[in-house]
Amino acid sequence: MIENLPLNDEDMKNLKLFDIILQSNMSTSTYNLLKKHFMPELSMSSIFILQARILKLSHVTEVSYDCCLNMCCCFTRTYAALDSCPFCKHAWYNLEGHSYKKYKYLPIEPCIKSLYLTDRYAEVLHYHTLPRDSEIEDVFNGIHYRMLCQTQVTINGAELDHHFFSNI
Ligand SMILES: [Zn+2]
C-alpha cells in the first residue's frame, strides 16, 4: 500500500540534499565531509539513512537477480536450477557462495503508481481521457490510438477483459 502523505520539513530537507547530491554528482566522501563540518547546523543523516528515506519516499524498490559474470543470463525461471551459465559456462557462485554478479533494475509499476500520487501528475496522466473535438491535436486524436481504445488486449492468443489504454 502506497501512502500519499504530505512531506514534513525533514523530508523536504532530505529531498533537497538528495537533489544536491544528484545535480553535483557528489561523492560519498564529499557528502561525509559536509556532514562532518556542518553537523550542528544542517543535522544531516548518514548517506545510507538519506538514501533509505528517499527510497521510501519514492515508493520504488530495486529488484535484484543473480546473473552470469559475463551478463549472458539471469539465473531465474529455466536457469534457476543451474550451477553455471548455459552460454559461457562460468560458475554462478564464487567460493563464498555468492553470485558473481547481480542484475538490478527498478520495476516500472511502482514508478507509475508513484506518479499518480501527485495530484498534478495524476491530472496530466489523465490527459488522454479528456473529451476531444474532431481536429487532430495530438496522438490521442489519431486513428490508430482510437482504434486501439476499442480493441480487446490479447496476449499469446488469450483475449483479456479490457481494451488498450483502459483503466483496469
Ligand atoms: Zn555467461
Can you describe this structure in just a few lines?
With 168 residues, the chain is α+β, with helices and mostly antiparallel strands. Helices cover 39% and strands 12% of the residues.
Principal-axes geometry comes out as flat
Question: Assembly type of the shown chains?
Answer: single chain
> What class do helices, strands and sheet pairing give?
alpha+beta
Strand content: 5-15%
Q: Could you report the average pLDDT, rounded to the nearest whole number?
A: 87
User: What ions, cofactors and ligands are bound?
Assistant: zinc ion
Largest sheet: 2 strands, antiparallel
| Helix percent band | 25-40%
Low-confidence stretches: none
**β-strand number:** 4
- Cα end-to-end separation: 18 Å
Radius of gyration: 23 Å
- Strand order in the sheet with the most strands: 1-2
Helix and strand pattern: HHHHEEHHHEE
Total of DSSP H or I helical runs spanning 4+ residues: 7
List the helices and strands and how they pair.
Layout: H1 9-24, H2 28-37, H3 39-42, H4 47-58, E1 63-67, E2 101-105, H5 108-116, H6 119-125, H7 143-149, E3 152-155, E4 158-163
Antiparallel strand pairs: 1-2, 3-4
The structure holds zinc ion.
Residues 68, 70, 72, 85, 87-88, 90 line the site of zinc ion (ZN).
Any overview of this molecule?
With 168 residues, the protein is of the alpha+beta class. Among the domains are: 1-60, no CATH class; 132-163, no CATH class. 39% of the residues lie in helices and 12% in strands. It has seven helices and four strands, in the order ααααββαααββ. Strand 3 and strand 4 form a beta hairpin. The protein is flat. It starts with 8 loop residues before the first helix and ends in a 5-residue tail after the last strand. The mean pLDDT is 87. Bound molecules: zinc ion.
